[in-house]
Design brief:
Oligomer: single chain
Shape: globular
Structural class: alpha+beta
Helix content: 25-40%
């Protein structure tokens, strides 16, 4: 159902651009209404509403300044390793989960009663971040409403793809171009005007479920990530590895670095 919702959002968004921006409709009003009604019905039955859904008219919000927020749990930096031997030493014979380290802006999201309440940057030393909820609400793939009424806190990465990075830099021109997608994403998410973020196709990928009040969490990270997927979140690609399979997994990840 979630994949169908994403497909419908993409089709309806394409139709909106063609109709309102290009003045060149690509479908009849009836066909549009049928897709719109199907999306609204899926949102109602699943309890999930994704950011960017045409059923949700999120107006641009402009702030005078970003509000500082102290994290309830410090966001510590991960240690780095550079060789397969260091990875094996860290594993110490235990199975672990390997995933991508995305290069964007790390965020903490908090949901209450099924609704996104707050998005905070990692900020200074992972202790004091900035409230960027106004921009998170216009991310391309972030659920605004989920089918879980308890308090949910998760961490993830806001990112902008290389294709979007190139498109945006072309629009900005050489003098105002960003050096890399990470800087572009950070600058975009920390904008005071959410209309800018809405135009830059920022995406969010969850990598840690911090806690979910009212739900017993699994000891398995993969099971917790699957649960987040069922709520409509995109998650960082991951794979379970052992001492026997870790080198093969590392090589596979290396081979897919663009």
């Amino acid at each position: 159902m979630l994949q169908r919702m994403k497909t419908l959002i993409a089709k309806l968004t394409e139709a909106d651009i063609a109709y309102y921006k290009n003045d060149a409709p690509i479908m009849t009003d009836r066909d549009y209404d049928l897709l719109y009604d199907e999306l609204a019905q899926l949102e109602s039955s699943t309890g999930v509403i994704l950011a960017g859904s045409p059923t949700q008219k999120v107006s641009g919000e402009i702030l005078e300044e970003l509000t500082e927020v102290r994290h309830t749990r410090p966001m510590l930096s991960a240690g780095k390793v550079k060789t397969d031997e260091e990875i094996l030493q860290f594993m110490d014979g235990r199975p672990v989960v390997m995933s991508w380290k995305l290069d964007g802006l790390t965020l903490v999201l908090r949901y209450e009663n099924g609704t996104l309440q707050q998005a905070i940057t990692r900020g200074r030393e992972g202790i004091v971040g900035e409230d960027v909820t106004h921009n998170a609400r216009v991310f391309a793939n972030l659920p605004l409403k989920i089918a879980f009424d308890g308090e949910l806190v998760l961490r993830g990465e806001g990112v902008i793809s290389y294709s979007e990075f190139q498109r945006i830099n072309e629009e900005l021109g050489e003098g105002d171009a960003y050096k890399n997608p990470r800087n572009l994403c950070s600058g975009t998410v920390r904008q005071l005007n959410s209309e800018i973020a809405a135009k830059r196709n920022v995406q969010f990928f969850a990598f840690t479920l911090v806690y979910a009040h009212g739900k017993e969490l699994s000891d398995s990270k993969q099971e917790n990530m699957l649960w987040l997927k069922s709520l409509g979140f995109s998650t960082v690609e991951e794979v379970a590895v052992t001492a026997e399979t870790v080198e093969e997994a590392v090589e596979d990840f290396r081979s897919r670095i663009a």
